[in-house]
Design brief:
Substrate Binding Domain Of Dnak, Chain:A, Domain 2; six-stranded parallel sheet; binds Broken Fe4S4 cluster; binds iron/sulfur cluster; 11% strand; alpha/beta
Length: 673
């Protein structure tokens, strides 16, 4: 009889080595004690493929995969690597990179499309569950889509009927995905020189879907085999995401569910309560979560929960759904992307409700070990495991669906099996900033614009702006990169605008409070934060809300004194722990908008040094923004600061300045030619 080979026990992660967050460490330890694997452990056992992580593995046809590893001797003396079809390492890496942009843009934009469809149903009054909430924002957005807000009658200018405007906005918005001619209308919201540059470079997107489809065509075997031409299409597609699908998602969500304004809440697994029904919502689209929040707060459901012996219903969010329901309702954040399995490991998660994006399939296996009901809700995002319940969510019966889900969670409260172990850690946070609220806080009630922000950048109290965003990545210590980069920036007087899982990490660390300023900020930024009463790290929402960062930068340009384009501003972008294809699309629309953008962890381009140089160096000459990869978080932040200083110097504001209040004429004098 053949000797049975002893199966090697899988490795487990050292909790202290893989996360800086003590709640995460505690829950990871518990999972390991119970024999439940999580992403942290799986990362120990699955090593990434070298060639894939260098970006030079092609599997775009059945003759491959063709793997083109970087020769040990380098490629200085020539690079003769090619696939069976002859594709060079540059072509392979560029094709892979633009496919990531296409996938990321598709994810954001399909989310935007779903919101646009619900918006149009609400505008046409085909659903009772959703109404147009923010008519002010509707009136602001309408002209950007070519929708008139007034009408002339008998020589008199009259306000147009708001319902009529809403329907036309909905129709025009949906057309942005597939119209036959013209261009994505929101591109004109960028500063004029930026729009003109895009026109000159031939990268103004025609419609959102077309740019994504064209990438899939161009990257098919035997089509586009010039890395520069591939990146031109990647640029057009990324612009269609940032200034198209994502921006539409943000605007239409604000109009439907309300534009966020700063509010207080809490963050980390400690927000869950043993004596409450705990419902964790995870994913991205707020269409579903808005309804669940409304239903969970209803008297009927609270009474029902009490009938079952619970003291109430505690909602919590993971990933970007968390940011959406936090910024509009103050629902606390349960955690970041890498904490999703751990929320179930508490033993207190009565239901985890998921929609789309960033959802681990292993949630189903973890849920099996506890009483947790794992509920998928979206027709495009199901799971194969048999313990997963699918309740398809439809805007036409949204309230009924939400009630069914909340009731299922309440019924499950009495079914808890394992001992409940909720970590104590949670921090206070202020969230819900946006273009409008920054205007209010940093503009002042009289001038109501970005003048105060610009004045403080010009006088040097604020050195510059950092947009720090993006995911967690199990290949790097959870939240360490996020927090180190952000702390280094604010220590050096760089104000931070944050979204996504970086925002959640900052919230968990207590960085989203005005009090943080005195502890972590340089003297200039601390003074501004204390005077105005804002945190030095401003939570701007979810991944699609990176469009708010683009518009905030545009407002800074408009307020004057800091150049004529986003590429003139002392700003830099960062994703210290990125992992998703969406992050690549976001990174590239930041670059195409003129922002120096640094990623941490890795970038799948190192196997094609010529292509890599094109992204890291040549793009700056064309667009004023470029990519970079810096793994060490302090160096990462320092490179952002060096770029900010380079821009300050070009603007002539690098010397310490008298703290004078500038008027418009002074600011215009400062404008670079
Ligand atoms: Fe290989 Fe070319 Fe096919 Fe890619 S497209 S797998 S490089 S033959
Ligand atoms: S959820 S894309 S892990 S930020 Fe937007 Fe967080 Fe990254 Fe998902």
């Amino acid at each position: 009889m053949a000797e049975e080979k002893a199966k090697k026990a899988p490795k487990v992660a050292d909790p202290k080595a893989v996360s800086v967050d003590t709640a995460t460490q505690e829950m990871l330890k518990r999972a390991q004690d119970l024999g439940i694997d999580t992403a942290f452990d799986r990362a120990e056992n699955l090593k990434p493929c070298n060639i894939g992580s260098q970006g030079t593995c092609c599997k775009n046809c059945g003759m491959g995969p063709c793997r083109l590893p970087l020769p040990k001797s380098g490629v200085e003396d020539g690079d003769d690597r090619k696939g069976i079809c002859g594709a060079t390492a540059n072509t392979v890496a560029a094709r892979n990179f633009v496919r990531m942009i296409a996938a990321g843009a598709a994810a954001h934009s399909d989310h935007g499309r779903a919101v646009a469809e619900v918006f149009l149903s609400a505008a046409r009054k085909e659903t009772d569950a959703y109404q147009i909430k923010d008519t002010q924002k509707l009136l602001e957005v309408a002209p950007h889509l070519g929708v008139e807000t007034t009408v002339e009658k008998d020589g008199e200018v009259l306000d147009r009927d708001i319902d009529e405007i809403a329907v036309e906005v909905g129709e025009k918005a949906i057309a942005e995905w597939g119209k036959d001619e013209g261009e994505v209308l929101y591109c004109k919201r960028a500063p004029e020189p930026r729009y003109e540059l895009w026109k000159k470079m031939g990268v103004v997107p025609r419609n959102i879907d077309r740019e994504i489809v064209e990438i899939m065509h161009r990257t098919h075997i035997g089509v586009d085999q010039d890395y520069k031409n591939l990146m031109k299409q990647g640029t057009r597609c990324a612009i269609a995401d940032g200034w198209g699908g994502s921006m539409l998602a943000t605007d239409l969500q604000d109009i439907l569910f309300g534009t966020p304004y700063p509010l207080q809440s809490e963050a980390n697994l400690g927000i869950m309560k043993e004596d409450h029904v705990n419902i964790i919502i995870h994913g991205h689209e707020p269409i579903l979560s808005e309804m669940i929040v409304a239903v969970a707060q209803s008297q009927e459901m609270l009474d029902y929960a009490k009938e079952k012996g619970a003291k109430g219903i505690q909602m919590g969010g993971i990933c970007c759904t968390a940011n959406e329901i936090l910024q509009r309702h103050g629902v606390p954040l349960a955690g970041t992307f890498l904490q999703q399995e751990l929320a179930i490991v508490t033993g207190a998660c009565d239901a985890m409700v998921v929609d789309i994006q960033c959802i681990f399939q292993n949630l189903a296996n973890v849920a099996k070990c506890f009483h947790t009901k794992l509920i998928t809700t979206h027709p495009i995002a199901k799971m194969e495991q048999d313990n997963v319940i699918h309740i398809e969510f439809d805007e036409h019966h949204a309230l009924e669906d939400a009630k069914k889900i909340v009731k299922m969670a309440i019924d499950n409260f009495t079914e808890r099996k394992a001992e409940v172990m909720i970590p104590k850690q949670k921090s206070v946070c202020i969230a819900g900033f946006g273009v409008e609220s920054i205007k209010y806080h940093l503009g002042g009630s009289f001038r109501g614009d970005y003048f105060t922000l610009n004045d403080n950048i010009i006088n040097g109290r604020i050195r510059g702006i950092g947009g720090v965003v993006g995911c967690n990545n199990a290949r790097t210590k959870h939240n360490e990169g996020h927090l180190t980069v952000v702390k280094e920036l604010i220590k050096n007087d760089v104000i931070v605008l944050t979204t996504g899982c970086n925002a959640i990490a900052c919230a968990m660390e207590g960085l989203l409070t005005p009090e943080t300023a005195a502890v972590y900020c340089g003297p200039g930024l601390a003074e501004v934060c204390e005077t105005v009463g804002i945190p030095p790290v401003l939570h701007l929402g979810s991944c699609v809300d990176n469009s708010r960062i683009l518009l905030a930068a545009t407002e800074v340009v408009k307020a004057g004194g800091l150049g004529k384009d986003i590429s003139d501003l002392p700003v830099a972008g960062s994703a210290p722990e990125w992992m998703s294809e969406k992050a690549i699309s976001i990174g590239h629309y930041f670059v195409a908008s003129g922002v120096y953008t640094v990623f941490g962890v890795t970038l799948p381009v190192s196997g094609a040094p010529v292509f890599q140089d094109y992204l890291y160096k040549e793009f700056e000459k064309m667009y004023g923004g470029m990519w970079d990869l810096v793994v060490d978080p302090i160096e990462h932040a320092q490179k952002m600061i060096a770029h900010i200083d380079k821009k300050r110097k070009a603007l002539g504001i690098d010397k310490a300045r008298e703290r004078v209040l500038m008027d418009m004429a002074d600011r215009q004098k400062l404008d670079v030619a």
